[in-house]
Amino acid sequence: MADDNDRVLLGEIGAAQGLKGEVRLRSYTQDPAAIARYGVLDDEHGRAIEIESLRVTPKALIARIKGVTTREGAEALNHTKLYIARGRLPEREEEEWYHSDLIGLAVVDRGGAPIGTVVAVQNFGAGDLIEVKPATEDDWHTEYLDLTLAVRIVDDLEAALDHIAKYGSSHTDAIVTEDRTNAERFVSAVQSSTVLVNASTRFADGGELGLGAEIGISTSKLHAFGPMGARELTTRKFVVFGDGQVRN
């Protein structure tokens, strides 16, 4: 099954319609009926689902799914999400985005002050509505373990360093800049196990840094146990300089 990041949600199967296996269908394509033209789609588990026919009614899209001929079979598909591989989608026009690309983006006002994060794009018939979750103090502390960003816009480098010092995990931090002075200030001030300049944070890895197989990453600074000398009071900080490298 393809990674969810490589797939786009096109629609969702709803309740059964009638006795012969038809279902109600919610489509997220710009032209709701266009969902039937994409051919075979996938559900959450990678199972192939094909819309055999589709009719548009004043109240709903009614679809027939290939291989489903009974109401019981249709009911079993209720709430099934329909995905397509991103590579099968047409190229976007300039200033055009897929809804899925908006989820997780930061929202700011005209002055740059944070408002919140996009959590959904809804359409109830009168046009697209962007649902925004207000930013809170918890957002800066949270490690989402997902493709979700908590983005804060600050006035200058010193404000950014203050933010990292207060909310950072001491794991890995990076700066993207053409200013050498700012880069050196960032490297000096940020007390994380790995600090990068103009390179992806994914390089914070034991294998990439020449340590061999990685056991884990420590964000504490003292590993000594028992008697301590000068060496036990010394910690190591990895600093990586690049010019736009990413890790494949």
Could you walk me through the main structural features you see in this protein, from its secondary elements to its overall organization?
- With 248 residues, the chain is an alpha+beta fold.
- It folds into three domains: 85 residues, Elongation Factor Tu (Ef-tu), domain 3 (Beta Barrel); 62 residues, SH3 type barrels, CATH 2.30.30; 94 residues, Aldehyde Dehydrogenase, Chain A, domain 2, CATH 3.40.309.10.
- 14% of the residues lie in helices and 31% in strands.
- The protein is built from five helices and twelve strands.
- The chain has a six-stranded antiparallel sheet. A three-stranded antiparallel sheet has the order 7-8-9. Strands 10-11-12 form a three-stranded parallel sheet, covered by helices on one side.
- A hairpin with a 4-residue loop joins strand 1 and strand 2.
- The longest helix is centred in the middle third of the chain and has 11 residues.
- It is elongated, with a radius of gyration of 25 Å.
- The protein starts with 6 loop residues before the first strand and ends with a strand.
- The mean pLDDT is 87.
